[in-house]
Amino acid sequence: MTPELAIGRPETAAPLADNATGVRPVMLLTFDVPFDRDAVAFAVETAAETGAELYVCDGIPVPTGNPAVAASRSFGTSETRRASEQVAHEARERGIRATQLIFHHPRPVHAALEVTRDEHVGLLVFGSDRKRLGRWRFRSIAKRLRKSAPCLVWIAD
């Protein structure tokens, strides 16, 4: 096959991320519960080794039944906020560019998947503390992330 017959194929791949290194970001994700320490260690180490940006994300469900409650968005539990700030601080001390994201949505897993698509995340680390989130909810979210995430997914055991 000659190169002239390869119509429609780009000669070089499009960049996967907007950053200068071309490395896609790592997302550490929880849902309004503190992080699992193994997940934090894995996400920070991966970001450090690859030179990727680290997104420390917290998805907070917004109740839809009462409009007054839905309008008053919170920043999640203070314990989760402190945990997110601690992870971001730890990452920055190691020279990793870290960004904290909080998203409010009636379906926070759906919102997290949208963020992974919009930000071209390369690795999603589901880092909610399993005991605090609840066994059934943790499994349900993990299954959905594995099925629908547009990137690699790492889930703490």
Notable traits:
single chain, 157 residues, alpha/beta, 5-stranded parallel beta sheet, 5 strands, globular, disordered N terminus
Structural features, described:
With 157 residues, the protein is an alpha/beta fold. It is built from six helices and five strands; from the N terminus they run βαβααβαβααβ. It has helices at 37-50, 67-71, 78-93, 108-118, 130-133, 135-148, and strands at 26-30, 54-61, 98-105, 123-126, 152-155. It has a five-stranded parallel beta sheet with strand order 3-2-1-4-5, sandwiched between helices. The chain starts with 25 loop residues before the first strand and ends with a strand. The model is unreliable at 1-18 (pLDDT under 50).
What's the story with the biggest beta sheet?
A: 5 strands, parallel
Q: How are the strands of the largest sheet arranged?
A: 3-2-1-4-5
Mean pLDDT: 84
- Give the helix/strand class: alpha/beta
Write the layout of secondary structure elements.
Blueprint: E1 26-30, H1 37-50, E2 54-61, H2 67-71, H3 78-93, E3 98-105, H4 108-118, E4 123-126, H5 130-133, H6 135-148, E5 152-155
Parallel strand pairs: 1-2, 1-4, 2-3, 4-5
Question: Could you write a compact summary of the structure shown?
Answer:
With 157 residues, the protein is α/β, with parallel strands linked by helices.
